[in-house]
Every structure is written in structure tokens, then in C-alpha cells.
Fold these 4 entries.
Entry 1:
Amino acid sequence: MGHGGLKGPHDLGRSFVGRFPSPRRPLKCPAIVRRDDILGDNNSVGAAWVFQLSGGSWTQFGGKINGNDAVGAARQGPVALSTDGSVLLLGGPGDHANVGAIWLFNLSRPGPILTGINPSSALAEGAGFTLTITGLNFRNGASILWNNSPLSTAFVNSSQLTATVASYLISSTGTASVSVVNPDGGTTANATFTINGAILTVTSTHFGDFLYGQNGGIYTFVVSNAAGALATTGAVTVTPDFPVGLTAASMSGQGWTCTSSCTRSDSLLPGTSYPPISLTVNVAQNAATLVCTAVRASGGGGYSGVYDPTKIVAFSPCDINTDGSTNVTDIHTIMNEALGKAAPVHFLGNNEKVGVLDVQMVIGSVLGRGCGAI
């Protein structure tokens, strides 16, 4: 389909038809119509006009570009345009006393501007989704950045881009920064993407030190959801990881289904906790003197993990007489200290005082409930 003649503004002198650059591909970037005859525009120095092809129509791109006749008269010469339309070379072989001259022009493009992201939030541990970015001055080849890492981006037009956000990028609650970078390095300001969900916390506690060869060391796990978070959705799983020297004997908790891990699917509201989980472990004779049992809670839109350092000792603190077992003799000794009949030296409750609590701890150990069980 033909187009009508493209005419430059005749604001300085007479204009004569010049040349188009010879494109190596269909003219989608700016094309040049040049007027630089000896009797032409810009007082016969020469000039150029840039036109942009968009949607089948040519429109002038910016104002007229005038050559600078600093030495002599311009003659009709070549026009060249870079592939991306950002650099223009305008030749004047008759200029500079027929020695020739060229003028080089750089096109200053406006930088990209981000005006919106859709969606702007998602649930943690949700499925992947398509992110749509709207704005201005996007260029073909632009990339959407997620926390400064590029996503595979589709160029829709100069005001819209799309990209797929994988599920692993929204695996936990928090925020992500989203921006756009053009091929020339121009970058937008950051927008914030919010990853909503439960905010889980898991704690692990144990009382006292464990013994080498002990059967029945107990850990207690509690899973909580922070106030102001979203309620959990779906299954929540609590999984312990044991160091060398500890093995699980049993694990249970009200409302939990437990094997090597514990799971439940009822929703945990913000500011509340699930019933505790009790884990019983056996200690090997060759266990390290300090071990760390790890436990993690995941699912329901949240995640948390914690380590519980545990000392392994040769004798129980309740083995007052250090004869390898807790027995009636240990009860007698601690009662005398509590009653003031002997000097108080075994502060089992860590309160610098020997009293009823210390006596109860020794009795509990003798009854097989472990030192510290009351």
C-alpha cells in the first residue's frame, strides 16, 4: 500500500527531495526523509526529518534536525540510521570547502515508568501466576525484575508487559520488589508485591540435661500463628530432625496425626497456638556432649524453624550422690538440704535455693519421670 509524500517544514529555505536510508528490514523504527540539496532547506546547509511508522501510518518523530554549516556549503549526501533508530548520521560531502562533513545525532529516549502491577499480592505457598505490568515507555526486549532478578517477560506494547511468577517465588510470607528494565538499561522505580499468609512460629523446649544411654528424653513443640496474620489454610506439618546420637521413640499431641512428623488441617487463627507436641527420644552412649535437635513447621501459608541445643551428661542432676542412678538416698540428701539439716549445694531449680521444687524433681526422677518432671 502506497503512502502520500512526506514533506518537511519549509521554515528556512527551499526544500528538495533527498534520500531514504536503505533499511535491512521492514521500516518499523524511524525512517529519514532528507532535504540537503545545494539550494535546499536550512539555508542550503541541509536538514533531516524523522518519521515513525506506527499502525500503518507515518508520523513525524520530533522536530527537524538541522546540519551545522560551520565551514562551507552542504552538498547532497548520505543519511544513515542505526538499527534501533537511536543514532542518526547526516552527511554533507560538499561541506567544509568540498572536503566533506558529517553530523551525528543521538536520540534521547524517555526512561520507562511503572504505574501499576496486577495482581499486587498473593497467598504464600499458592500457585504460580501471570503478573501484568502497566506503565510508559517500555521497549521491546524489556524485562520485569523480581527482587532484581529478571523474569521471562513478554512485550505486549510500550505500556504493558507480562511475566510468569513461579510458585517457589511466593513460598513464604513477606514482600518482593518489582521493577522494569529496558534494553538500554533504563530502569523504573520499584513497586512492592505482598505475599500474604499465616506467620508461623514453632518453639522447642526440654527440661534439664539428657544422659548418655537415657531412654525417655522429652522435647515439647508448640506451633503459633502471629497476631495480625492470616489464618492457616490447609495442612500444617511439624517435622523434627535429629542429630547423631538421638533417635525418636514416640511423638504425639492432641489433634495431631503423628508418625515421623505430625500433621493437622484445622485452621489456626491469628494470635493462637495449636496443642503442644511431645517428642520422646533415646540417647546413645556415644552421643556428643552437645547436640541440636531441629524442628520446622510448614504449610498453611507459613513456615518456621528452630534449633534446640541439648547437653548430654554422664550423670543426672538428680543423681545427687553420682552413683549412676537416682534412688531413695538422693531423696534423703535433697530433703536434708531443703530442711536446713545439711548445707544447700544442689540447686536443681536454678534459683540458688534448695526447696520443695528440688525435692519434687528428685522424686520424679526416682519414679522414672526424668529429672525435672514434677
Entry 2:
Amino acid sequence: MKKIGIVLAALFFAFLAAGCEQQAESYHKATAKGRMVEAETNLPAIVAMQAGFKAMNQKFAATFQELNFSLSGNNQNYSYFMGDDVIKGARGPDKLPENLPNQPSTADSFVVYAIANLDDDADLDVWKIDQNGNLQHVRSDL
């Protein structure tokens, strides 16, 4: 009888551990999805700022400093890239990945990337927006 009780207890704890692991994975995915809101919010804001800059200067800004755009706080996850300019985020790379084209701003066009590793794996989450406000989720990290 003791052996049956030990086996049942072991099975119970195995199922409990599997359930906890599944819950933890679900939590991490939900947290990472919540972090994506940062890119979905900041990229359209950059487009709006660029539109104002162009109305005043007849060209788009080439750098974030020229645009007067910065990240507030220490909890920004994404790195933002516009041409050779970068604003480093806590979970973002220092450099634009080689597989993405570096597209400097011109008088008539610009592209901004938001890139982060949201769940600490090898994959990056990549967002892109252009002067027309076309927002693309180029690659999901989830």
C-alpha cells in the first residue's frame, strides 16, 4: 500500500510541475506580447513627429536628435533605427541586423525599425514603419 501512495504522490507532483511549467510559459508569452505595444505606439508617434518636421523644414529628419525624439524612462525594450542613427533599448541590439536594409532618410522618405529580443531567445522582434505610416510586423519573436 505504501508503494501505491508513493507512486500516486510522485504522479501528482509530476502533473503539478508540468502544469506550473505550462503556466510560466503562457505568462512569458503574454508578457512579451505586452512589450510589443511599445513599438506599436512609438513608431506611429515618430511618423507624426516626422510629418511636423517636414512641414517646417521641407525634408524629413535624418536623426532622432534632429527630430527631437528620445525614449523616456529606463524600461524601453526596443532599439530604434533610422538610417545610421540608433536609440538603444534595454532588449534591443546595438546595431541594425545585417539582413535588414539600412535606409537613410531623404527629403521624401524615411524608414524606422524597432527591434528587440522580447523573450531572451535567439530571435528578434522586428517592426518597421515608413513615411506613409505603413506599420509592418516584419518578424515576430514569439
Entry 3:
Amino acid sequence: MGTNIIGVIPGRHWSTTLDRPLVVGAHWDSYEMTPGLNDNGSGILALLETARLLSKKSLDCFRPDFSIIFVAFDGEERGCRGSQQFVSSLVAPLHRQGIKTQGAIILDTILNYDEAPGSQIISQVLFTSYFFFFKYLLFQY
């Protein structure tokens, strides 16, 4: 088995039962004869850029209420082993301590593009949800 890479932006409620961490993840492994740039270089790039932008903001007095856990999963191409390890070694122990995660945003194969009409449409509800979620993360003090 390989290695997951984990980084955390501690929220105001870090290490308390008031924390509701958000997981942002992508897998960094690939294997021969797969489009590794997209599956999943594109997700790792987005993960790293999101972490960079939010950590830069934290240096400028930004601190979210809830922690953000960034994880680059290994072993996705071999049965999601890295994801399973992450859940059993980090998420499950947090839940046993009364710390529940809000959910996860998994950035997998986000470089896909299809010119077919209607194939690149995101629903207004989903777009609005993402917009307000990221606005909340970036501008919350």
C-alpha cells in the first residue's frame, strides 16, 4: 500500500466536538495505460491550488470556523485503498470522539471536456450551492 498525503487548516473549533471538518480530496496515483494527467493530475492540481489559496488567506487573518482537511489519496486505482485507510484511521476516530465531518468534495477527473450540447451544464442549484460554499470559506472571519 502507498501513502496518503494529508494537510489541515485548523478551524476555530479545531480539536473540539464543535468542529465539523470538511474533507477536500483527490487521488494522486495512476497506472500504465490510463490518462494520468486527468485521472487524476487535474484533481491534485485543483486540490493543491485550493489549499494554497486558503492557506495564504489564513496567513492574512482568515480562519474558518470549521477545519478543512486536504487529502491526496493513494491506492485509488487499486480498490480505493487510500480512501479506506483515511476513513478508518482519521474519520472514524474523529466520529468516535464526537467530531462529525460535514462531508467531502472529491476532485476526480475534473479536466474532462465534451463539446456535445448540454454535456457541460451544471444545474443552477449546484452552481449556487458551490458559489455560496466557497464564498463562505473564503470570506468568513
Entry 4:
Amino acid sequence: MAAKRRDPVPQGHYDARIVRSQFVGNRLDLDFEIIGGPHDGRVITRKLYLHSPDANTKRRDISDLERICRAVGVLVPKDSRDLHNIPMVVHIGVTGRRNALLGYSCKPRPMSPAAAPPAAAAGLAGPSIVRLSDVEPEQVRWLWPSRIATGKLTLVAGDPGLGKSFLTLDIAARVSTGAGWPDAPNVPFEPGDVVLLSAEDDVADTIRPRLDAAGADVARIVAINAVRAPDKQGKVSARPVDLSQDVEYVEAAIGQLAKPKLVVVDPISAYMGETDSHNNAETRAMLAKLADLASRRQVAVVCVSHLNKGAGRSAVYRVTGSLGFVAAARTVWSVSRDEHDHERRLMLPIKNNLARDTDGLAYSLYASEGAVTPRVAWEDETVAMIADDVLNAGEDESSKTAVEQAAEWLRELLAVGPVKPADVIARARDAGYSESTVQRAKRRAGVESVAHRDDDNKMTGWAWRLREPDSQVVS
């Protein structure tokens, strides 16, 4: 009598491990064994056609193998046996009377019995929760006290050409030697290792000379130029780092260092792959991976960004891209030029969620006699300035002047009678004024919108005119 077919495992997420693997012709068979719960020991096989003549099947199964490798933390296995007996979470589906493996992810950190949800008792994956009474309070750990926190994201934003890269390399140099910080130069600390991701500067002719000028211990600093990973055809080749999918490779680099303390990403926009930097959800999702890496490895991650042209806006809205950048970072610093001394740079706080408000610092780029490469020269005193005021200082003045000039132009244009808004905007562009400037100048010039009527008193649209005494403003 034929053996009775067992019922399929119910659909859901289960803890599992690979217990057997073998190549059969052009495919790789992997046996996944469920760990724990009522289905403990059940085995489900995934057949991967890695050398299939069908391009779509081959691409799909290679992609699945990559996900399995990430789930077990073995990114480039030398043999399929390297994947054996490492716990992961698998998503199991049901098709007819058969099970299918739909997804793979890293196994969450173990939960205390008091916090474990009912799903855990059944061998299913579930939320990782913690009872706050079981949590030991901890102090924030600082790389640079009150300015750059360990285990957190920090953002440095400024216009191009202000020396942001000089600034981050000066920080990297200090970490590598344990030299005191600019606001505490006589307080040395234990040196550490640094990982650099720098997309805009060459390692040999720019980064190394700047680190040397800053007095760095370059033996403690590594740069990631690219990652070697399988492409869609399964061929391992070098490609640029994409933090939306390559955080594991950055972590692997960190794992090779004796005492990692700092990761610098300069600029963050160059390492986002296909992530839309103006999409809040996509940006937060990508930065969440980076923040988790910082927390897990207890390193400070400093990301460099640029400023937009939003004159008159709060500094938190001046960072290029989505507001998600500022939201994800625990501390945010602006780098700007002192309007009274163009050689002087100001490093001012935009946001600090972890410490009391801190004064800013000032620096300039200085090259000693005979030196080719400049270095950062910090001022001894802190700077009691506000980023909002400094970033908008010159812009508010020029913006105000443009609006006043546009208001004067509007008065002259409308002195002869009403004009349709579309015609006003068209003439304004010819005169060198943008639509937004003219709209802001409208009220200052005393302009109102009125109904435009033809000879039969029939309304044909709207027109702008100079406001008459005691008239009501329509818009």
C-alpha cells in the first residue's frame, strides 16, 4: 500500500535551516528543515536552476540564491555546504497539496520567554518585542562628545566647495590617532579604525594626501572602492556600492577591522542606487539599514549631503532631498561660509536629538609653508550662531530686494489699467522676474484680482489691477 501523503505545512513564516544540498544536472537542490513548533523536522526542498537555458528561470533562481546567502550571512559561499545549519526565517506558501518557499530573511534576535509572542511557541516567526522593565538604561555613547554619537547616524550638509570632505577626513584622522577633538584638544581618547566611502575624491591623489596633512594613522583607515557581487547572470564582478542592498558588504569590511569606530559616506546621494532621494518612504527605508548597522556594530556613521536653494526656509528643510535624511539622523550639522570672512567656515547645529543645544565651531583651510595640501585649522572658541540665521543671511536680503523691485515694476505695468494674470507673468519673465517673485510682490504692490468683463458685462476671466481705496482683495 502506498504511503499516505502528508498534509502540507500551513502557510506562514518559520524558523528553518539548510540541512542538505546537492547539484543534480544543471540545478542545485537545497533541503530546508523547519526548526521547532508542531512541524519541527519537516523538510521542504527548493530546486534552483542556476544554469537553466531559460533566461528568466535562471535570473529568478540566481536572485533567490542571493537572498538565501544574505539570510544566513554568507554573502559569497565557496561551497553550498557553507550555507548548512545556519538558522534563518523562511516564508512558506501552499500550492494545491504542495509547499513552496516564497522568501528568506535573517533570523531575528532571540526574545526572552516573557516577551515571546504566541507565534514563537508554534515555531513561527513573529514580532521581536521587549518588556521595558527588562531593559537596563544606558547612556548615549559619543565618538565626539555632544556632536557625533556612537551607534547613530550623523549628517553633515553644506554647499559644494566649503571643505566638507576636509572636515570629515579631519574627523577620521583624529579617530585614527586618538588626538583630542577641536573643542577639547588636551583630552586624548582611544584610537580606532575608520571605513571611508568617498565617491567624489580619488584615493591616491586627494584622500591620502589630505589624511597625511591631517596627521592620520593611515594604517587604521580603509576605503571601499567597490563591491564584488553576483550579477543577474550569476557572474561575480565589481560594481559601485549601493547602500540599499550592500550594507552587508560594508559590515563585512567593518568586521575585518580590529577596533572600528567610524564610517564616513561622502556623499550619501552617490550610494543610494535606484532609491529616490526625494521619496520619503524610500529614503527612510534605505537609511534604516544604515542606522541598524551603526547600532549593531556600535560605530558612528557620518553621511555628507548638500544644501538646496530654499531661501528663507528653516535649516531642517535646506538639506537636499527628502526630509527623511534629517529625520533619520540623530545629529545634523551645517557647513556654511562666514559672510564677513569668506575663508572662514562655520559648523553649526541644525538638529541634535541626543544632547542639549551645543554651540558651533569655526575652521579654515590652512597650508603650512612648503605644503601642497591644506588641512583643517580649527578656532579655539565655539561659535554662538544659529544655522537658520547664517544660511538665510544673504538670501533674505537678495530675496527682499527682488520682491521690492518686482513690486515697483508691477505698479508701473498696472498704472494704465487691469491686465490678465497670464499676460502679467509673461511680461514679468521678459523683464527677468520669476512667477514666484511676482506672486510675492503682488500684495506689496497693492494689487488685487478683479473680474474682467466684456462690453456686454459678461465675465471673461480675471485681471490684476492696482487696488482702489476701500476695495476688497479677492486673492
